[in-house]
Amino acid sequence: MAELLKKIPTQKCWEITAKTLTGFTMLRGSKTTAPLLGEGEGIISPVMGYEKYNEIQAKIMGRGAQRVFPMVKERFNIPADDAIGAVKLLIVAVTLMGGPEYKFELVEANPKRAVLRRTKCPWSERYNERHIDPELWVCPAGHQAWCEEGLRAVNPKLTYKLVKTLTWGDPYCEAIIEFKEV
What we know:
alpha+beta
C-alpha cells in the first residue's frame, strides 16, 4: 500500500485531499445539500437552525485559527508586525487550511492597511460545482472568524474585516486588514 501511495505525485495528493475536505465540510451546514445528497438540507444546520449553526461555526473556526496562525507564523518565519506581513501570513494559513485552489489579488498594501481580494476559493468552487445558490452558502461567518481570530492571536493590533463576498452577490470576496496602534 505504501508503494502505491508513493506513486501519487505530492501536488496531486494535495489537490485531491483539499478538494475532498472542502466538499465534506459543506455537508455539515449548507442550508441545502440537495445537490450533494439528493434530498433535504445540511446535516447539522437543520437540527439547530441556520443562525445557531453559523454562531457555532464561527466559534470553531476562530478557535482553530488561534492555534493555526501562530504555528504557521513560527514554522514559516512570517512576521506579522504590520498589515503587509499579516496579509502574507493570512494567505499561507488560509491556503494550508483549504488547499491550492485559492487565487488571491493584493489590491492595496502598506504597513497600516492592506486590501486582499479572493477571486477563487475551494468552498465557492464546491458550491458552484453542485449548483448551490450563493444565498445558501454558510462561509462568511466562519471565514470572518478564522481570519480575524487568527490574526489577533499573532498580533492584537491587527484587525480583519470581510467587506465583500460572493455570498452577498459580489463578484469576489474582499477583506481589509489593518494595523492599529492601541
